């Protein structure tokens, strides 16, 4: 192990050892802005400026996504057009216009959302809290194939093939595998599995009716954020962020801040939908309102404040890492910034959240 650690050490020195320049000059890029959202009565959200809107490219991705959904066995696959996952991919992954690359994000996000709706969140669509953990255990087996085990594997494969969610997760990972590295595939799998652990906590709270205080919900939510979607940034872009950089604590802190900020947008636009479920879904606004016995408007304002703080933390941290001599790191962080701006645009214009 010592041999592996000899020579220059620290953030970015792997790039230095490969003879890359000691400074990276980045072209000007869009900044940040305060954006109104919802009906305009809540405080504005501080977000990166949207970098791309391309309806024709989004339609091309969605057309391929609908065909894929049919292959996975989803009923009425054209309903995936309403999910607008092609548009999500185009808004959030702005460094490629290759449809096959964008389908990496579109397929996996569609499969994750399907699992969330059908397994975890929406009781009208079949979500049952007590059935969630075993469903997620099979989802892990679908994404990260286990060792062959004779006739037991036959039963497992039959189950995966018969469940559109499992088939979608399996197919989405297969497409990622064909276009990225084993390292990135495992990052995506294990960020997904961490997300599943949080889903299990939500299910327990909904089943027992013992909802958590806001701090505990947020601690759980921070492993169930758009960080999972953001793990696809380099794969969609056609490169790999080296592991020493990806796992550096400073980089991980930025990525978790970005993911949490983006998922706070989801909570903000989902309040009415989440509160209306017969078994209410955990939501930061709802948990703050319950904790503090305050109005939804007051809880919304505090959640906006938290979101904006996280985005400003990301902005400052991003600037602090500009001196690191790694083209891949700067491309990934720029992609993370673009993801936040695109994610805001997608959430605040999607009919699902109206």
UniProtKB/TrEMBL annotation:
Keywords: Lyase, Magnesium, Metal-binding. Gene3D superfamilies: Farnesyl Diphosphate Synthase. One of its GO terms (biological process) is terpene metabolic process. It is an enzyme of class 4 (lyase). Residues 1-37 are annotated as: Disordered. SUPFAM superfamilies: Terpenoid synthases. Its EC number is 4.2.3.-. This is Terpene synthase. Belongs to the terpene synthase family. 2-methylisoborneol synthase subfamily. Its cofactor is Mg(2+). It catalyses: (E)-2-methylgeranyl diphosphate + H2O = 2-methylisoborneol + diphosphate. GO terms for molecular function: metal ion binding; terpene synthase activity. The keyword Metal-binding applies.
């Amino acid at each position: 192990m010592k041999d592996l650690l000899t020579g220059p050490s620290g953030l970015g020195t792997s790039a230095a050892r490969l003879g890359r320049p000691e400074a990276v000059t980045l072209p000007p890029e869009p900044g940040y802005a305060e954006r109104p959202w919802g009906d305009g009565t809540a405080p504005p959200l501080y977000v990166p400026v949207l970098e791309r809107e391309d309806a024709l490219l989004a339609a091309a991705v969605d057309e391929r996504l609908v065909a894929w959904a049919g292959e996975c066995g989803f009923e009425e696959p054209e309903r995936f057009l309403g999910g607008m996952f092609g548009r999500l991919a185009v808004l959030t992954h702005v460094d490629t216009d290759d449809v096959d690359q964008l389908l990496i994000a579109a397929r996996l996000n569609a499969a994750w959302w399907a699992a969330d709706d059908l397994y975890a969140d929406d009781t009208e669509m079949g979500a049952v809290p007590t059935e969630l953990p075993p469903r997620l255990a099979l989802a892990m087996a679908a994404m990260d194939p286990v060792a062959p085990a004779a006739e037991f594997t036959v039963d497992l494969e039959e189950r995966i093939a018969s469940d559109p969610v499992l088939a979608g997760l399996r197919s989405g990972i297969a497409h990622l595998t064909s276009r990225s590295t084993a390292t990135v595939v495992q990052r995506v799998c294990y960020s997904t599995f961490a997300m599943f652990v949080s889903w299990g906590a939500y299910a327990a709270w909904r089943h027992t009716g013992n909802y958590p205080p806001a701090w505990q919900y947020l601690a759980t939510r921070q492993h169930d954020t758009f960080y999972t979607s953001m793990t696809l940034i380099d794969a969609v872009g056609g490169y790999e962020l080296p592991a020493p950089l990806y796992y550096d604590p400073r980089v991980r802190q930025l990525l978790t801040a970005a993911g949490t900020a983006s998922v706070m947008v989801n909570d903000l636009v989902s309040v009415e939908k989440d509160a209306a479920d017969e078994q209410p879904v955990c939501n930061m606004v709802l948990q703050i309102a319950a904790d503090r016995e305050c109005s939804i408007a007051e809880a919304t304002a505090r959640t906006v404040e938290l979101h904006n703080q996280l985005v400003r933390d990301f902005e400052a941290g991003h600037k602090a890492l500009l001196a690191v001599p790694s083209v891949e790191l700067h491309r990934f962080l720029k992609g993370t910034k673009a993801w936040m701006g695109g994610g805001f645009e997608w959430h605040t214009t999607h009919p699902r959240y109206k």
